[in-house]
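User: Okay, second chain of the day. Same drill as before: sequence in, C-alpha cells out.
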Amino acid sequence: MKQKNLWISTFLFCSAMLFSSCSQKENLEKQQVVPREEDNSQFVTLTDAVPDAILEIRYYSTYNFVGQRIDGYLEPTALLTREAADSLHAVSEDVKKLGYRLKIYDAYRPQMAVDHFVRWSKAINDTLMKPYFYPDLDKSVLFPQEYICERSGHTRGSTVDLTLFDMVTEKELDMGGTFDWFGHESHPDFGGNPETSEYIPNDSITAEQFNNRMILRAAMMRHGFKPFFSEWWHFTLANEPFPDTYFSFPVQQINR
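Assistant: Same drill. C-alpha cells below.
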C-alpha cells in the first residue's frame, strides 16, 4: 500500500510539474519579444518632463523642407529618452530665469522618417520648398554635402532641435536664421566664435542675433548637451544612453 501511495504521489507531482512547465512555455510563446529598436519603454513624452515647452513639430506639418508630413509622425508631439528629457528640464528651468521658454521643432525621429528624407533627396525635380529652405543650393548637393544623411542622431532618441521663446515679446528669439535652413548661415560659428562668444561683424547676422544663439548654446551645454557643427538649433546629450541604436517606432504620445 505504501508503495502504491508513493507511486501515486510521484505521478501527481510529475504531472503537476509537466503541466506547470507546459503553462510556462505557453505563456512565453504568447509573449512577444520587442526588438530593441522598436522598444519605446525608455522614452517619455517631452512635455511630461518639460510641461511649459512650446511644440511646433515641423515634420508633422507640411511646412518643412519636404513640403509634406513625414513618415512616422503620427501625432504632433515630441519624444526623448528619459535621460535627455531630464536634462532638458534642467535647461528649461535655467532659461526661464532669463525670461525664456523652450520651443521644440523636433526630438526623437524614427528611422522611417530619415528614409523619407533620403527618398525625397533623390527626387531631384521635387523642389516645392526650395524658396523657403535652400534657395541658394541646388538640391543635388544636399546629400553629398550631408544636409541629408542615411542616419541621424535624432533616431537614437537623445537629440533635440529647438530655439528660445521670449516671454516678454511673445515671439521666438531672433537667431538670424530659421530652423532647417540649408546653408552656412546656420552654422554656430557663422558670424562669430562660439567658443569665446565673440561676434565678428558681417552683413548677414547682427551681434544681437549671434548673442541669442550663444544664450541657447550656453544653456544647453551647461546641462550636458553638445552642439552640432552645422546647425545652431541642434543638440545631443553627450552621455546619450543609446549611442548605437537607431529606433524605428513612430512618434506618438506615450501614456504610462
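The radius of gyration is 25 Å.

User: Thanks, on to the next one.
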